[in-house]
Amino acid sequence: MGDPGERDGSWTLLTGHGHVLVEIARNPGARIRDISAAAGLTERTVQAIVADLEAAGYLTRTRTGRRTRYTVNPDSSFRHPAQEGLRVGPFLAALAAPGDAEPGPGAGPRGGPAAAAPAHHDCAGPGTPDPGRSG
């Protein structure tokens, strides 16, 4: 048998696409360089992943001068059949919520606000009514 520490660090729960989408949900104005550092991927890999996510409808890119701002589509569905019918919005809200803050009054389990939705993002969080939809 090998060293247990080797085995534990050889995989992550999310793919590169998942890491990039979470980082964009956390910071829609992030540069490719910032996303790359946070996700532990090369800039070239992040560029390809962002193109994949945009082509699949998970996000849109808007250029303003020299900057790019991303908007995540929380109504996008997971692609794997095991998550058929589930939307990425609640998943991103949970993973993109601030978790480094000191717990305070009314704080949720990770130190952020209880039932936290992505703060200051261009996407609506779970439970946010869409003016164009009823129900």
3D structure, described in words:
The protein has helices spanning 4-8, 16-26, 32-39, 43-55, 88-96; strands at 59-64, 67-72. The relative contact order is 0.12. It is α+β, with helices and mostly antiparallel strands. Helix 2 packs across helix 3, helix 2 (16-26) packs across helix 5 and helix 3 packs across helix 4 (43-55). The N and C termini lie far apart (55 Å).
User: Strands of the biggest beta sheet: in what spatial order?
Assistant: 1-2
Name the CATH superfamily assignment. Answer: Winged helix-like DNA-binding domain superfamily/Winged helix DNA-binding domain
The number of E-state strands comes to 2
**Strand portion, in percent?**
5-15%
Alpha plus pi helix count: 5
Broad structural category: alpha+beta
What is the global morphology? Answer: globular
Number of domains: 1
* Rg (CA only): 16 Å
Report how far the terminal alpha carbons are from each other: 55 Å
pLDDT below 50 for ≥5 consecutive residues: which ranges?
101-135
The mean pLDDT is 77
In CATH terms, what is the architecture?
Orthogonal Bundle
Order of SSEs: HHHHEEH
